[in-house]
Amino acid sequence: MSAASINETIGKYRWTICALVFFATTVNYFDRNVLGLLKTTLSEAGIFGPDKANQELYYSWVVMSFQIAYAIGMTLAGRFIDWIGTKRGYAFSLLGWSIAAIGHALAYNTFTFGIWRAALGFTESGNFPAANKTMAEWFPKKERALATGIYNSGTNIGAILTPLFVPWIAIHWGWQVAFIFVGAIGLIWLFFWFRIYGSPEQKLKAGILKQSEYDYIHSDLDEKADKEAALEPGAKAKVPWTKLLKLRQTWSFFFGKFLTDPVWWFYLFWLPAFLNGENARKILEFKTLNPSYAGDGSGVPGVISWTFAVAVVYTISTIGSIFGGWIPKRFINSGMATYKARKLSMFIYALFPLSVLLASWLGKFNTWYAVLVIGLACAAHQAWSANIFTTVSDMFPKKAVASVTGIGGMAGAVGGILIAQAAGLLLKHYSAIGKTELGYGVMFIYCGIAYLLAWIIMHFLVPKMKRVENL
User: Fold this and answer.
1) Of 163, 157, 89, nearest in space to 123 by CA
2) Residue 396: which region, alpha, beta or left (left: phi > 0; alpha: psi -120 to 50)?
3) Phi and psi angles of residue 300, each rounded to the nearest 5 degrees, phi first
4) Among 314, 269, 291, CA closest to 419
5) Is the dihedral of CA 439, 441, 445, 446 positive or negative?
6) Quick one: which H or E segment has residue 295?
7) How far is it, in rounded angstroms, from Cα 255 to Cα 388?
8) Coil/strand/helix, residue 12
9) pLDDT per residue as tens digits for the range 123-157
10) Burial of 288 (0-12, 13-18, 19+ CB in 10 A)
């Protein structure tokens, strides 16, 4: 039966919930994308210090302040959301990160900027545990990767739109207004969240959700058993971390996120700088060959609009995010076991990032070639991300989903801290000798191989992604 006929027969209110989470994730990436886009502007304003030789390192410290706070927040966010509930937990998180985003406008040096960045990281840590828990509550297993891919594509939409308006706002009204604007957008979402969201049980009682759709959402037999067990006397509503950390399934998700999340962080915070650097390199080469040239560089062959290029990269990523959820659904519908469909899909997606190994070399010929292979790698990451999130709800009962997501998110943030420090040190070194592109080349090597390495580790830890029982 097709998705359209299923929706026609049983109802489609669950997709309204998916849309809410999609918009929340879009807002989440509005707020975190601004830093990378305004890196040059903030450097010129003295936020990263007056010494240009150290600005790359100071910038990496600001990135790390976000990552450290994000990692700390992840250790708490999942547990907090499992405890307080999805509706209130998501709302508190989004309210917090909107205020933190607006607070950036008050910063005046690296330290104060880092403080607000840390506040943003801590509060944004609630997005994915809450989103993943929402998907587990509102979708059966066969649809979760698709629904996750759709909401996760909000990261791309946020990354597509911010280059189109944030630099313009910064130029015309100042970088402070850019932060205030993106922070204020999140406050609008809260109105719709409180008006629309409720659990399937609440919506069924209110007559908004059809009984047929409610039954479809709860059609997985193993999760029916979880629900029955949760109603038994003495059943525990929360699962302690000490118990989760003894499980191979938890460590599978931990290492999968630890190795691959940093790649996305690197693209998010350094892609605009890489493209700017490619432009600067071509302008310098052109001026060396044409000493009489006195233009601004916009007409130099190979120079591109980096803001448009960033939007192109994340547009390609959107396709990967949604398509990444469709493939395993197709495999499952054809009769393949859920774990086989998930693992085969993730292996396929792990191969595509290898194309980024050619990014620096292709950039020498035409920057758009580099843009396209980075876009392909980002699309593969989003397809991978849609599925690795879904492995949690595949392997764990719903009461543990947010907590395990938090553990993996913390691991990804720690990996992001390490890659930010590595990028800062590498680019400082290679910038000092006039070979910045070599520093990016080294970083692209890791970005290319990380997914295959993660897939191999996950395969050995959970060959059949066996579901955890009796938590």
Assistant:
1) 89
2) beta
3) -70, 135
4) 269
5) positive
6) none
7) 11
8) coil
9) 998 888 889 889 888 888 778 878 888 887 887 78
10) exposed
Whether the predicted pLDDT of 232 surpasses 50: no
Q: What angle do CA 153, 318, 102 make, to 5 degrees?
A: 50
Q: How many residues does the chain have?
A: 471
Query: 463: exposed, middle or buried (C-beta count within 10 Å: 0-12, 13-18, 19+)?
Result: exposed
Question: Which ranges of 334-397 does DSSP label H, i.e. alpha helix?
Answer: 338-351, 359-365, 367-395
DSSP character at residue 49: -
Q: What is the DSSP string of 177-215?
A: HHHHHHHHHHHHHHHHHHHH---HHHHHHTTSS-HHHHH
- Tokens 């937990």 belong to 89
Return left, alpha or beta for 239; rule: phi > 0 is left, psi -120 to 50 is alpha, else beta. Answer: beta
Q: In 10 A of CB 317, how many CB atoms?
A: 29
Instruction: Answer yes or no: are the C-beta atoms of 116 and 66 closer than 8 Å.
Output: no
For the chain, report the end-to-end CA distance as a whole number of angstroms: 34
Residues 329 and 146: their CA atoms lie apart, in Å, by: 7
Tokens of 429: 């070194």
Q: Dump pLDDT digits (tens) for 4-42.
A: 555 556 778 899 999 999 999 998 888 877 887 888 888
DSSP label at residue 83:
H
> Residue 446 class from Cβ within 10 Å (0-12 exposed, 13-18 middle, 19+ buried)?
middle
